[in-house]
Amino acid sequence: AAEQLNCCLFVHPWDMQIDGRMSKYWFPWLIGMPTETTVAICSMIMGGIFEKFPKLKVCFAHGGGAFPYTAGRIFHGFNMRPDLCAVDNKVDPRKYLGSFYTDSLVHDRGALRLLTSVIGEVS
Q1: Which of 31, 42, 51, 63 could tie 106 with a disulfide, CB 3.0–4.6 Å?
Q2: Nearest CA-CA partner of 17 in 39, 48, 41
């Protein structure tokens, strides 16, 4: 429905792990949210959501979480272990760079430069 209505989905994490080693130092917000955002991006890519809905507009919170930093690892893993990563979508994840959005809430100039160099820039 969102694709047909030309709506944008904003994906923001919330259900972070809060127990065990994540219970201290505000880790659910400092580490958990970026991790959950990365999981959401990878799930949509590897799950074939962007293939099934090519005009779907999705914006991910927190600069895409750890995705910009781990993109190389994700792409490499997809190509080296398609038996584990390309189960639901055979398309190389690199194809989707520039087809989804992130906000720019990264709190650091260097992180923002990395984000725009990996994801792209829209003004």
Answers
A1: 63
A2: 39
* Arithmetic mean of pLDDT, 55-75: 97
Burial (CB count <10 Å: 0-12, 13-18, 19+), residue 52: exposed
For residue range 7-22, what is the model confidence (pLDDT) as tens digits? 999 999 998 999 999 9
- pLDDT at residue 110 greater than cutoff 80: yes
Q: What is the DSSP string of the chain?
A: -TTTTT-EEEE-------SGGGSSTTHIIIIIHHHHHHHHHHHHHHTTHHHH-TT-EEEESGGGTTHHHHHHHHHHHHHH-HHHHSSS--S-GGGGTTSSEE----S-HHHHHHHHHHH----
- Strand-pair category, 101-102 with 57-60: parallel
